[in-house]
Amino acid sequence: MTAPRRPLLAALLASLLAALSLAAAAAPAAHASKSEEVTFEAPRDLFDPAQREAAFTEIDGLGAHALRVVLYWGDVAPDPTSRVKPKLDMADPASYDWSKYQPVLDEAKARGWTVQVTASGPVPRWATNGARDQVTRPSPNEFRMFMTALSKHFGTDVARWSIWNEPNHPQFLQPQYDAKHRPTSPKIYRGLYAAALRGLADAADTKPILMGETAPTGTGKDVAPLTFLRGALCLNDDYKKVGGCGKLRVDGYAHHAYTNRLGPLFKTTHPNDVMIGVLPRLVTALDKAAAAGVVNKKLPVYLTEFGIQSTPDPFFGVSLQRQAEYRSYSERIAYYNSRVAAFSQYLLTDDKPLEGTSEAEKYSGFESGLRTSAGKAKPALAGFRLPLVAKKTSGSTKVSLWGLARPANAVTTVIVQQRDGGSFKTLKTVTTDSHGYWTSTASLGGSKREWRVQWTDATGKQFTGPATRALG
Fold first, then answer.
1. What pLDDT, in 10s, does the model give residues 152-198?
2. Where does a domain end: 386, 421, 444?
């Protein structure tokens, strides 16, 4: 812009603009006022004695102090592959071998972390309904006794319970459908959930308990999450009560809102699927269930498992930069949904590839970690500490910036930098709220424009986030 010709007017305008700029930079960000729990899940690292302490320390340093542990019933039960039930008191913790999980929960307790335990199948074979596998029709009564034992053993170390991992997926619960392809798993799950409530009550355990833990999509083998929700709560397709089911105690609904390679902007057209891009569907479904009187109003949502898969997975993986961008954008979606109480990062380190098999089998695990399977840091590692989103709005020449300095326990400042294919230069300094969240705006610019954030924490250590492009 050409400078004004009159020196005095130019000086006054410059002074006014400088004052306004300083005021804007000093003012706390104006956005939703809430602090969202961030839960970490890192089974490869935390269950490896050689990696455990370093992994705990790294996650702690990243500002995540909540842990989700999926505790598989079959891992701790006696004689898990036998068809014959051992002659033991299955409500007694002494009947089980807790050694796989004990060190992890002990370390989390020592650090003062919040722990959610998800009790899940596979189950001991003797607890199934005559099946050769360990996931078909688990006995609700046996599960009741297991939950009593689990609470008596780990109850003082656990902040909340959750029942079953992805019960709408055949890997964890069968059958999903009957011979006429009608959903069967929701009814089975309801029986297990009700049994868990009784088992926890037998242990005098009143801690919060979550329903769901559903996978995001339905297929010919998986029941879609909203179909599953309705079935488990005895609702028809119109969210009206059917049958004689009573109201179950549900303190929150857990869901795994994974997306595909199109990322968090993708909006699936399948009406009963819930990926992160259509998260309001789940809130609407829970509100309809509350209107039917089967759950409480304003039930909180816990996104207990989430991650963005990256290369080298050739089927589901995105580039390393895109992984960081998509992960941050997904966290922004969760943050601005007032019903979301927790958001998860699934994996610190990628699963190891399976050597000597097909590409599909080689990468059949998850590449959603913040580090590669060899331990090398991805951009998403720095992006987890300093998530940044530059969101485009249709027809606008600006982007809205949203970010977080983690872990910030008080008001702090971050430096926003910008580049157009060259080196990064400081754009502005922004003040966060007391939880480290901040918002601002910037010019959209050309296709090469990128942003990043620098932050110096309370100890004087400086961190730099990854380069981020505009999305939306």
1. 999 999 999 999 999 999 999 999 999 999 999 999 999 999 999 99
2. 386
